[in-house]
Amino acid sequence: MRVALGALVVLAVLALLTGLLWLFQRKLVYLPDRGPVPPAGQVVPGARDVVLTTGDGLRLGAWHVPGDHPVTVLVAGGNAGNRLHRAPLARALAAHGLPVLLMDYRGYGGNPGSPDEEGLLRDALAAREFAGDGPVIYFGESLGAAVTTRLATVRPPAGMVLRSPFTDLAAAGQVSYPFLPVRALLRDSFPVSGLLAGVRAPVVVVYGSADTIVPPEQSRAVAGAAGGPVTVVEVPGAGHNDPALLTGPELIGAVVDLADRIRDTS
After folding, report:
1. Which of 100, 106, 237, 258 lies 20 to 30 A from 125 at CA?
2. Is 4 a residue whose pLDDT tops 80?
3. Which of 30, 47, 25 is nearest to 38 (CA)?
4. Pairing of strands 100-102, 136-141
5. Cα distance between residue 173 and residue 166, in whole Å
6. In this structure, is the dihedral angle defined by the CA atoms of residues 202, 218, 123 and 67, taken in order, positive or negative?
7. Burial of 1: CB neighbours in 10 Å, binned 0-12, 13-18, 19+
């Protein structure tokens, strides 16, 4: 009797935890810094504040850094923080003359709205529209790699840099919550590998060998799924949030090299 009662208690706790996960899962997936950000020019020399208008009518703040390179880099961040946290990346790319559009999703960086998979696609589409008609590289960081891959199926880019991409959101979530049926519970799927197979643009996959949030084997699997030419850059000893994967020479060099190849073949 006592064993049976204990088993019922465990099952009840698991059911409660599962229910809470279902209800509040997006608060675990999306971790925005919702606070306002300073003016762009105070953070990145020469940058300006711009507004992106989404298909469902949201006006999203973003930063644009002009440059003399003909290829623009559209940066979609990960699931946490806001564009202020990617300012070092924008400065590093701008130092090579690359124009940079640093977007923020709905609910991030003082923007209105609440993030979900479809909403982030709308946000990325608004950013791509702003970037204009010239060649554009989509740079996606972690969750942003999923957003830009989805964007690439609608608006093909000149090239893509996927930093620490996961194969799909459930696979990434299972790493953090190994005892929960993550795949059965998730509302947002972000199937990176499945979608990337249909993308013909050149893709560069950059990841850290010591990443414990998105394991390296997931990023390598994404590279293996690419439908076009792919380059793999492993940063030895780098974890998911290490500076080496924000402004390190391997990462910045990979973006600059891809932009130069696109320029030289245009």
Report:
1. 258
2. no
3. 47
4. unpaired
5. 10
6. negative
7. exposed
